[in-house]
Structures are given as structure tokens and as C-alpha cells.
Amino acid sequence: MSREIVGKGLRFSLRHAPCAHICRYCLISESRKRSALPFARFEQLVHRFYDWRQARGRDDFTIGIFVGPSFDYDLETLKGVARLHARRGSKFGILNLGGLRRRDGDVLEAWLEDRRAAGIAGFHTSLAGCGETHDRWNGRAGDFEYQTTILRMGGERGMVRSERLFLTQNTLPLFDRLLDILDGIPGEIRSRVVSPFFYAGLAHRYEDERITEDIRDNLPERISRLRPARFDQWLSEREWIPIMLETASHPRKLLLKLDVDETNIDRLENASCEEIFAEREREYQESYQRIPELDELCARYGDPANRRIYMMSRDVEGRWIDLHWRATGTNPPID
Ligand code: SF4
Questions:
Q1: What is the per-residue pLDDT for 93?
Q2: Fewer Cβ close by (within 10 Å): the C or N end of the chain?
Q3: What is the residue extent of each domain of the chain?
Q4: pTM of this prediction?
Q5: For residue 24, how far is its CA from the centre of ligand 1 (angstroms)?
Q6: Rg (Cα) of the chain, in Å, rounded?
Q7: DSSP 8-state class, residue 308
Q8: Mutational test site, ligand 1, from 13, 15, 16, 19, max ligand atoms within 8 Å of CB
Q9: Confidence class for position 279, pLDDT limits 50, 70, 90
Q10: Does the domain at residues 5-235+251-291 carry the CATH identifier 3.30.70?
Q11: Element (H, E) at 131
Q12: For residue 323, is pLDDT > 80?
């Protein structure tokens, strides 16, 4: 038996703006690859789904988008992404700094002012330590300096910021310095959270960098209070196991990712929304049929002695699926 998968909606994904980083913990494969599909056709497809959802009263159907891997959009794309956010009642106002190409001097200034004029209210940064440590994690010399320069320029112009600070064995000793630097940057901090790496993409290589129960229980208050409210249950594998087993037989509800590119756009444009969703749900279900149920995965691969910390049970499950793949050669399900 395999785990039952139920789609709760679609997350349309377009590789539109290649990433200028090669982060060692990147969740996205081939972050430098770009699709040849014009953004306008992608946008039209997503609008069609919003129209369909509205016409059918399908308020339970979630629509998400990811236009990436970086947010290094031209202004037309930026406005299109903002239109799609507006369809779900949210404002697209925060631009990720991860993966931006380098711009300096007047070019950087003009880039920032153009984005501000287009409605961007602030920036989001993800940092893994500071200085050379961050640069090494991000695969680009000078990146820490670059990102903090943009945050400073934004703050001086009344823009806000949000920050994700990765907490690992090697960034922990740098945290006081990092927080001092960030506290010295002007501007409103909309959110600041610390988090371990997600268990996904390339980050699965850094299990030894995870903090342990011991470190978690003795974190300085300055760091501990930055645990994200939504995922503040930082547990080790040994602590997750009983919690995961309680709900192991429940169906898994997923937002189904749909990559849209030049190879499938014609077909998607000519299929109904129901057909597209049903086909994707079927593909997910088939990919999960190859994987044993959660309690069986746990029995085979769960490690009750593992005291490393994971922010989500999904990270632990991802670890078991990887071990299953290594043991049996069974490809992981669609993610
Ligand atoms: S900025 Fe994001 S997409 Fe680019 S390499 Fe880093 S983690 Fe991956």
C-alpha cells in the first residue's frame, strides 16, 4: 500500500529569470536554466485558472505561482507577477535578493528606483552567516556585502525588509555579529526568522551542519525568539517519529507543482482546467505509488537515535525517501 495523495490545487512554475548564485543548499535543481516561454503566455494560463475557479465557485482550490528561480525580473514581468498576486487578493511588494545579477553604482540605483516606482515596497534576504561564510554558502564572493548594500539603500529610501537567517553548526558562532550588522541597517524589519536548512534539493548534503537537540535547548534568547511562529516546532528525528506515526494513515494534501514551459504550453492551452488538474493529480498519485506508506518507511529507515533538528516532519520524510532511493533505486516522488 502507498500513501493516498489528494491535490488541493496547482502551483504554476516558470523558469523565467536564471539565478546568479549557486547556493550550496539550493532547493531548486538547475537554477541557471531558463525556459524560452514568454511570460505573457504563462500569465494567461494562470488567469484562465483564476477565471475557472471563480466561475465554478471553487474557493477550496488553491492557485500558487513561482516565477523564478530568481526574482531578477524585467519591469514587464514584475507587473505581470503583481497582476497574478492581485488575483488572489495579495500585493506583490517584496522582492527576493537571492540570485540577482550584480549591478553597481548608478545602474544599481536606477534598478532600485525603477522597482520602487513599480510598487516594490521592500526586499527579502536569505543569509547563511555573514561575510565570507555567507559568500561560500551562496557560491559568490562579495554577495553578503552586495545584499546588505541593497538593504541599506532600500532602508534609506523608506523601504522595508524581511530576513531569513539560516542556522547551522557553522553559522551559529557568527550570529551575534550577523544580528549586529543587520540591526545597524536602517529601515523597518517586517519579519526576521532563523531556520535550519530545509531537507530538499542540494541541502540534503549538509546533515552534519544541522543543529542538535542540545544546541536547540541552549540557544541564546536573541536567536531562539526568532524561530518562525508557523514552524516553531523544531524537533529532532527521534522527537518527530511518534508525531508522524499518529497521522501516518491520513491522506496527504498537496499543492501540486506544474512546470510550464515551451514544451507543454500548447497542450495546456488546449486542455480544460479540470483535465489539467486531474492529469497532474494522477501523475502525483502514480509517483507516490512507488513509495511505501509512511509507517513502513519509518520502520525501515527511521532513526530513533537521530537528535538532529528538522523544522518540518516533511524534512524527516524526505530523508527516509532518500534512504529508500539509495537502498532500492526507487526514484523519489514528484515534489
Ligand atoms: S538564490 Fe535561491 S535559487 Fe538561486 S542558487 Fe540560491 S537558493 Fe538556489
A1: 96
A2: N
A3: 5-235+251-291
A4: 0.93
A5: 9
A6: 21
A7: B
A8: 19
A9: very high
A10: no
A11: helix 131-138
A12: yes
